[in-house]
Design goal:
Chain lengths: 240, 240
């Protein structure tokens, strides 16, 4: 059975403007790879309703799993929950269980549950809440879409909550070797190896460091013995 | 006149697998912002022909400028140039000017211009070459699509070559202040300010550090005096 496929939608003005560098995508990619879920596509869009709804609609129909990050806070530009409701064709309103979580959190921390914060209890109809152990305001899952916060610490906690509920595939194993030759000298033998091991994937990531040209060749597959065999053969080829 | 819009397409198996963390997107976002070009969307796809062609087709019709990174090296999984030709509806073959650049480079460095390396001289019909001062193999521009290498050092050099040829808008100016209050207390005043300054954009990026909750509030716009005015008003609001 092939591995489940996944996509990520980042609502990320701060990434598109160059203000911050992505951390959530990198985290999710690593977690999915360990569990045998193939992250096949990532889209980063700004906090405009039409862009979010269109991307969500495309991704949720195409992939088994969709994770979003960002846009579920209390400010006026936090519109992800409403966009998810629209894309899933369901209504959205403040929900009692989410409101109760917020009320308890803000009472404990001595802050007011004002109108802005109450926006974070808006949950699409039929969604399941995702716990937020850091700052209380929950994420949610609806259908195959999992909606998480953009703050990396919260995002990572939400990923940890949701991962055990997802059916993974065989974990993807990888091994890599460093070859100090130009990629153009690696390409021919690598193509032959890829033909000999059609069940594995071969990637070549060139580097130039201190005047040395080379590439990290990465072999990936779910069968450890096959990955071993291919890497051994690779090492022999380039030891000559 | 509104600023030109742009999209980036990353052909990035190594990013989707979690092996490496993006650097090119972050670089391009910063360069575009300085020049008043709005990076509106980024997509990251794997090195599968159908995925690349589909994303390119969607992005080139929607945005003024499209930049791709990755997939133009000599190995069997480097298929970007062929995908661009398909998406643009033109033919592709080894081109004499590109071959000459490679021939000179490999003669100088004492390496063979073998079949794998010659693949890097495959250029879609009608494209203009983008110089690669690092490792010779050129990128190219065709229509509104600019095709660049994925190695960060080469990508940055190619961006530097192409940027002067692009028409930018008014550079986006930004100022930010750090507010040590919960985002839920910032949201109300921020919404009012956003209504008072409809020509500016306001972003709020929450942080939790050493037990302190707060947000960096960023004000962006092309009129420096307006940005100043809004930030001054913000500072006064939160100084109370």
């Amino acid at each position: 059975m092939p591995n489940p496929t996944a996509a990520m939608l980042v609502i990320g003005n701060e990434i598109l403007s160059g203000r911050t560098r992505d951390a959530n995508m990198h985290h999710l990619a690593g977690e999915f790879t360990k569990r045998g879920i193939d992250l096949a596509e990532v889209r980063i869009v700004s906090d405009e309703s039409a862009a979010i709804v269109e991307a969500l609609t495309a991704l949720k129909d195409r992939y088994d799993i969709v994770v979003t990050s960002g846009g579920i806070g209390p400010t006026h530009d936090d519109i992800t929950a409403d966009c998810v409701a629209e894309a899933m064709g369901v209504s959205i309103d403040v929900r009692d269980d989410a409101r109760a979580i917020l009320a308890e959190h803000y009472e404990r921390t001595g802050k007011e549950l004002n109108d802005a914060r109450l926006r974070m209890a808006r949950i699409p109809d039929g969604a399941t809440l995702i716990e937020n152990p850091v700052s209380a305001a929950p994420g949610f899952s609806i259908g195959n879409v999992h909606v998480m916060a953009g703050v990396p610490q919260v995002f990572q906690a939400m990923v940890a909550s949701v991962l055990p509920t997802l059916t993974g595939g065989a974990p993807l194993l990888s091994q890599s070797i460093r070859v100090e030759r130009g990629e153009g000298d690696i390409a021919g033998p690598l193509r032959e190896l890829a033909e000999e091991f059609p069940d594995l994937s071969f990637g070549s990531y060139p580097f130039h460091e201190n005047g040395i040209y080379g590439a990290h060749v990465v072999v990936r597959g779910s069968d450890g013995a096959r990955v071993d065999a291919a890497v051994t053969q690779l090492a022999e080829t380039f030891a000559e």
